[in-house]
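Methods, example record. To illustrate the input and output format used throughout this study, we show the complete record for Phosphoribosyltransferase domain-containing protein. The sequence lines were provided to the predictor; the line carrying structure tokens was produced by it.
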Amino acid sequence: MSEDEKIYVSYNNIHKLCQNAATEIRSVGKPDIIIAIGGGGFIPARILRSFIKYPGETNIPIQAIGLSLYENMGGIGQVEKIGKEVVRTQWLDFGALEQHFDSLIGKNILIVDEVDDTRTTLHYALNELHKDVEELAVKLGRTNEHTKFSIFVLHNKDKPKKADISREMMNGGVYIAAKTVPDAWIAYPWEAIDIDEHSVKAIAQGNN
Ligand code: 5GP
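The corresponding predicted structure is encoded as:
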């Protein structure tokens, strides 16, 4: 894809996309915790936190998880497994969370990433977080508590997805994409070598 076919997005634009989504995120209640998928989810998560919190309310803690997509070439007899696989590079420290915050059981959880491309990453994050919370709830005899997962991304690419997001697991949470875009490469400002040039291109495309 040529440079010109990329979608350029400025920091200002990202700030506004987060601001505009805050009311919808609050429509299912104040998130108790934000889980940011690194590295693209970090900056949106931090911006969102300020807009989601109403004056006088306590800050919403942000926890980081790291997921990477890597090419699985498949072994002998594993041709069907060729494709992209998600690998956990960083996960929640449930022990520390319980000590300093609380367990995630019964909480309103907001997962944040920058882009929903093939949906593989969001599918993995939701499934694994849901599984971890459920296992803990069974262990502690707290399966009657209502844990809700919402998802926020800056951009959703309008394309066929390789995985789905289970509404059942979200348990009443919302899926919010601040903007739906065509299937093109999105250039985010935190990746820019020349941020001034990047901003000029973003403004020219109306993404400011
Ligand atoms: P997925 O295919 O699992 O939905 O997305 C995996 C990851 O690929 C995203 O979290 C993001 O880091 C990266 N990615 C996918 N599409 C784009 C894009 O257009 N621009 C950038 N910068 N990263 C992307």
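Annotations derived from this record:
The chain has one domain: 3-204.
The beta strands are 7-8, 33-38, 62-72, 83-90, 108-116, 148-157, 175-181, 186-187.
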